[in-house]
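Escalation from tier 1.

The customer reports that the assembly of two entities below gives different structure tokens on two consecutive runs. Tier 1 could not reproduce it. I'm attaching the input and our single run for tier 2 to review.
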Amino acid sequence: EPEVTQTPSHQVTQMGQEVILRCVPISNHLYFYWYRQILGQKVEFLVSFYNNEISEKSEIFDDQFSVERPDGSNFTLKIRSTKLEDSAMYFCASPGPGADTQYFGPGTRLTVL
Amino acid sequence: SQQGEEDPQALSIQEGENATMNCSYKTSINNLQWYRQNSGRGLVHLILIRSNEREKHSGRLRVTLDTSKKSSSLLITASRAADTASYFCATPPLFASGGSYIPTFGRGTSLIVHP
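Tier 1 run:
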């Protein structure tokens, strides 16, 4: 199965600090997605990115979040000034077969102290 | 909302037993998907059933879909300890722009299979 990779696997940061989460999606896909999952809760959609632009975003994806494609294969999710409630697992995903499904990365666990 | 909701929230069974999880949703769908999540890991797509299908099989998995009741079930037969995970149903709405399918997940069913 195609693989989506994410780094780091775990990030600990102080409240107010900036964090950058990285993802390498499946190559040759123009779409990719970011989700988050607060511990014990559902997986929530954050943003989709298509061809170097934000395609859709949820109400969670406010001004403190941004997504970028710094180079051809890497994508980043930046949280400018972290809050305690940003502690969660963050997943990126690439479209799966048929584009109705998705391949998820293993996630980055963000802990804000 | 297209959100799927799984039932029960938690299920504990012995190895070899069957596990059944249910999902209900609110509005019309094109398809419904089930995903699995091992603790602390990402989601893995298990199976997709389209709105014109009533039942689908994949190995030990059996999924049913009743569009009149807006519900689906996932049956895992002859469960194994390795099936221990959380299981989510997802109903992807079609967003107007871009045409990307973004699934909306429920809270999941936590399945524990005791060896």
